[in-house]
């Protein structure tokens, strides 16, 4: 029996184990798993039934998702559940793409696809995280940001103006994505340009790393701007 056969047997064993695990739980729990895998998180504070199911089946969810190389984390006090890639010991020595280290640092903390997380998205997440921390440290519990404030806060880290229609559409696309993964929620009111930043954003990246990354992105933006200015002078 070869190495590949051993791998196939292991995969089949895990698949059978997961199949048996799923059969043992009620349909609503299976639906919660699907929701977690689709969006990466659940905010269950407003849904008591979901909250009770997560509390009751937390050991099962952890066991099931671990077989998929996914960690399940659940904060009962805040009513937040989220998943992230399971880091195994043999992955510590894997080579990294240094050119994308800053962007990947956000994705590593949370189950955000690295293929979907552009530098633009990473910057928006970091700016929202900083705004949340500033307000949270002042005792605010519901933290809301308006679109104009966010656009101005992005300026030091971007080479383009988010006031342009093209960039505004790009920003709206990112905000829609962040809403889908429960980092923000668009306010349902007459003032549709305001977003509530949800507590889940605290688990994306810690404050120290956030500040480091924002400084690096600001340096990169300044470097690119200076290079562009030099190029324009040479053309003149």
Rg, rounded, reads 21 Å
How many distinct beta strands? Answer: 6
Look at the helices and sheets and give the structural class.
mainly alpha
Which sequence of strands runs across the widest sheet? 1-3-2
Write the element-wise H/E pattern from the N-terminal end onward. HHEHHEEHHEHHEEH
Quote the average pLDDT: 75
Largest sheet: 3 strands, antiparallel
Span from first to last CA? Answer: 71 Å
Q: Give the number of helices.
A: 9
Portion in helices: 55-70%
Overall shape: globular
Low-confidence parts: 2-10, 89-99, 224-236
Could you describe the 3D structure shown?
With 236 residues, the chain is mainly α. It is built from nine helices and six strands; from the N terminus they run H-H-E-H-H-E-E-H-H-E-H-H-E-E-H. The chain has helices at residues 3-23, 27-39, 48-56, 58-66, 101-109, 119-136, 147-154, 165-180, 207-235, and strands at 41-43, 70-75, 80-85, 143-146, 184-186, 194-197. Helix 5 (101-109) crosses helix 6, helix 6 (119-136) packs across helix 8 and helix 6 (119-136) crosses helix 9.
Please supply descriptive tags for the structure shown above:
single chain, 236 residues, mainly alpha, three-stranded antiparallel beta sheet, 6 strands, globular, disordered N terminus
